[in-house]
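Posting this for the archive.
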Amino acid sequence: MIHYQNIPNVYFLCAGSSEGKSALTSFDGALLAAGVGNVNLVRLSSILPPACNEIDPFAIPQGSLVPIAYATKTSSRPGEIISSAVAIAIPEDNSLAGVIMEHSDTASLSITEIKVKQMAEEAMEIRNIKNFVVKSKGTETIVNNIATTFAGTALWRQ
């Protein structure tokens, strides 16, 4: 028997960047900046459940297991621009699943967002879904020492 109580019904987009003394601490700082630093991330492939509604980011209980599709980029090259973004393609027919695409690059956020939105559009074309909207969120930073960018789509069950 299929149990639907475990399927997320809400999501929010988040993004953050941070410097650190190591790659891991810069990643941790980026998670904190994105609002998902005190939870356990469960990395997902890229499907948004049908009828999943966007909500404002909220304080998820610390230590929770949080399903999330995300992109991240870490660099230790001073002066380098890095960016991460996610894009969601949401079908107008809410009985259909949407897609979440993730992309990171050594480029400005504007370039990374163009790429990730194109990926989301292509995923809908593959599914033969013609009526949909695309939303995106991302971040960029210029590396000083060791920096990380992070962008994600967190899923939750309310």
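The chain has a mean pLDDT of 96. The two ends are 22 Å apart (CA to CA).
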